[in-house]
């Protein structure tokens, strides 16, 4: 069936705003998600969350199911990770987001977490997109690492046409000829999407660069490109993070980013 009007397009309705706790993503205030790449254990997740909440991070992230390149690497605590996220979310009063990779985990995971992340590797998993489209939860849809903007936006359309319009696009870098950084953060895409589509966009400078020393600059660049928020990997002790240690920042760096985002909010 040929469709000439897509739900993602500006002429299909007003810009989509999404409630994240007591904040609204898609309004003037930038929403910041942060936390470790993977949920490692309860104590560590709790320490990180308490600190992030104190410095003003709005929502917590942490992977319970990890899509690792090598099947021999740590795959996440899975169900136990969800339990940790639920406890820590409750105890700190923070909204929690985690990646779900399997259609069979979607329904029950929402008893533990508030926001579902679709990872870069699953952006083309149409069964998973349809499944999360049947929920009412906000969905962070990461850009496939080799996906064009058109393919990415159609992936959002898959979710929305099932009834769930709470889609947050996340630019997390794409593969290019450049190998100096882990990915190439495509800020053109952010400006373009804000111009053409109704969906809010957040930027992930952690996976976008792969290098913690670039996270501060690319966070601010993302905001200036028009992003509605950021998702950043952070840890009390980044050197010891089980996964993505090299791109994980500490709490002091996180606090500095939050301060500067507030300054940019005023300028914009
Ligand atoms: C992550 O957020 O830890 C992750 C695996 O991200 P991506 O899907 O963008 O690689
Ligand atoms: Mn990661």
TrEMBL record:
Task: Report the superkingdom from the record.
Answer: Bacteria
* Domain spans labelled DAHP synthetase I/KDSA: 18-262
Q: What InterPro entries does the database record attribute to this sequence? A: Aldolase_TIM, Class-I_DAHP_synthase, DAHP1/KDSA, DAHP_syn_2
* Keywords per UniProt: Transferase
Q: What biological process terms from GO does the record include?
A: aromatic amino acid family biosynthetic process
Pfam name, any one: DAHP_synth_1
Q: Does the keyword Amino-acid biosynthesis apply?
A: no
An annotated Gene Ontology molecular function = transferase activity
| PANTHER family from the UniProt entry | PHOSPHO-2-DEHYDRO-3-DEOXYHEPTONATE ALDOLASE, PROTEIN AROA(G)
Q: What is this protein called?
A: 3-deoxy-D-arabinoheptulosonate-7-phosphate synthase
* Organism, as annotated: Clostridium frigidicarnis
């Amino acid at each position: 069936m040929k469709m000439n009007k897509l739900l993602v397009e500006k002429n299909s309705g007003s810009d989509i705003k999404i409630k994240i706790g007591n904040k609204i993503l898609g309004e003037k205030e930038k929403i910041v998600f942060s936390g470790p790449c993977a949920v490692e254990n309860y104590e560590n997740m709790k320490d990180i969350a308490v600190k992030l909440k104190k410095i003003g991070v709005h929502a917590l992230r942490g992977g319970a199911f990890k899509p690792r390149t090598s099947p021999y690497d740590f795959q996440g605590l899975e169900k136990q990770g969800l339990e940790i996220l639920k406890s820590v979310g409750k105890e700190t009063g923070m909204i929690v987001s985690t990646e779900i990779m399997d259609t069979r985990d979607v329904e029950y995971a929402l008893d533990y977490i508030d926001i579902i992340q679709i990872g870069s590797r699953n952006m083309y998993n149409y069964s998973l997109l349809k499944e999360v489209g049947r929920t009412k939860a906000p969905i962070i849809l990461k850009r496939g690492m080799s996906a064009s903007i058109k393919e990415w936006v159609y992936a959002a359309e898959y979710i929305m046409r099932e009834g769930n319009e709470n889609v947050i696009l996340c630019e997390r870098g794409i593969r290019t000829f450049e190998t100096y950084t882990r990915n190439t953060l495509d800020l053109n895409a952010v400006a373009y999407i804000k111009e053409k589509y109704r969906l809010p966009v957040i930027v992930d400078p952690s996976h976008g660069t792969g290098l913690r020393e670039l996270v501060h600059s690319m966070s601010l660049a993302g905001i200036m490109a028009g992003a509605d928020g950021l998702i950043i990997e952070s840890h009390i002790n980044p050197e010891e993070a089980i996964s993505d240690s090299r791109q994980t920042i500490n709490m002091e760096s996180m606090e500095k980013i939050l301060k500067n985002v507030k300054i940019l909010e005023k300028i914009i």
